[in-house]
Structures are given as C-alpha cells and as structure tokens.
Design a protein that fits this description.
Layout (H helix, E strand, L loop, with lengths): L4 E3 L5 E3 L7 H15 L4 H17 L13 H28 L6 E6 L5 H13 L3 E7 L4 E6 L5 H21 L20
Antiparallel strand pairs: 1-2, 3-5, 4-5
Helix pairs in contact: 1-2, 3-5, 4-5
Keywords: Cell membrane, Membrane, Transmembrane, Transmembrane helix
Family: Belongs to the CPA3 antiporters (TC 2.A.63) subunit E family.
Membrane topology: Multi-pass membrane protein
C-alpha cells in the first residue's frame, strides 16, 4: 500500500503522519473512564487521562476526519430515528418476554453497500445497541454483518430486519458521508486498429 502524501504550501509533498495521541480520543476515553467509575474526582480525571494516553499509544489508530463531511440536519434525523428505534424495540422485546411462548431466533447476514470501515463499525454499533439484535461477526473483507436477531418467525421477518439494517446504513451515509476514494489514473489503452 503506497503512503498517503500531504501537499505542503510550497507545492511539494511529504508522507502524511498521524499522531498516536489524538486529543479527541483522549477526551472520549477519559469520559468513558469516568463513566465506568461513576464519579468525578481530580484523581480519577488524572488517572483517566493517563489510561487514555496509554491506550492511544498501545493501540494507535489513524485519524478520522469528519469535520468536512458532517451534515447536521441528516445527523439529527439519524439520532432521532435511532432513539425511536431503541424505544420501539424495547417494547417489542418486552412483549416477547411477557408472552412466554417459544421464540425463534436467527442469525441474519446483512451485506452493507458501503465499503467504509467507519460506516460498517458505526452501523454495527448502532444495531447492537437496539434491543433484540447483536452483532456476532463482522467480515471486513466483504463488509458483511452477521447479527443474532430475536423473534424472527419466518423469512419475511428476516427480510424486514435486513431492510431496516440497510435503511440505517443509508441514514448513516447521508449524515456522515465518507470521502470518496481517489482512483489512480490509468494510462489510456491503445486504440485497436480495424483490419
């Protein structure tokens, strides 16, 4: 894989570097640390920052630039619909539990349309947070999610879940469109001369 080049102001290029310790990642990990402890004290904040820095150094990730691609209105729709889906699914799961009848579950494969790892991760996380489904495998090579889904009595229910998952992916793509990969320039093929 060729290195990503960053253009300088004078027009020359140099390999793009990313910092292992990213401030937003440190802030997010520190907040998660404080949430796990359930309280905020100066010692826990300092400990959380140290743990976050160590995690960033041990598991460096390339930066994700979303500032240019966030569409606020579509993002608000995505979050609003997600919250509605969580509440609706909570009632559905409660109904399944209270009915006390045999439940048929299934593992459903969802082939995502996007080839973005970020989109796949976000869709998988959101689907797992909605009660009644959990991701059991994510295949990066084919961008396929395998989800264990509660109460799918027939093939129509499986297809309905698959459609809902693909609709969620489309809402994510509208809210956070990934950068289009730049295809390398291929030389023009020589024209064939007729005989």
């Amino acid at each position: 894989m060729s290195p990503v080049l960053r253009t300088r102001r004078d027009g020359s290029t140099r390999p793009a570097r990313h910092r292992a310790v990213q401030p937003l990642a440190v802030l997010w990990l520190t907040l998660v640390w404080l949430a796990m402890w359930g309280e905020v004290t100066p010692l826990l904040v300092i400990g959380g920052v140290l743990v976050a820095v160590l995690v960033c150094l041990a598991f460096p990730l390339p930066p994700i630039d979303l500032a240019s691609g966030v569409r606020p209105l579509a993002l608000a729709r995505l979050v609003g619909r997600f919250l509605v889906d969580v509440v609706r699914a909570s009632f559905q799961v409660s109904g399944v539990v209270l009915r006390r009848r045999p439940v048929r579950n299934a593992v459903v494969a969802v082939d995502l349309e996007s080839s973005s790892d970020f989109v796949m991760t976000l869709v998988a996380s959101m689907l797992s947070l909605i009660p009644g489904s959990v991701v059991v495998e994510a295949r990066r090579s084919t961008h396929t999610l395998y989800l264990h889904v509660l109460d799918v009595p027939d093939a129509a229910s499986v297809e309905a879940f698959r459609r809902d998952a693909l609709d969620l992916e489309q809402r994510v793509l509208r809210a956070l469109p990934p950068d289009a990969p730049v295809a390398p320039h291929a030389p023009d093929a020589p024209e064939e001369v007729g005989r």
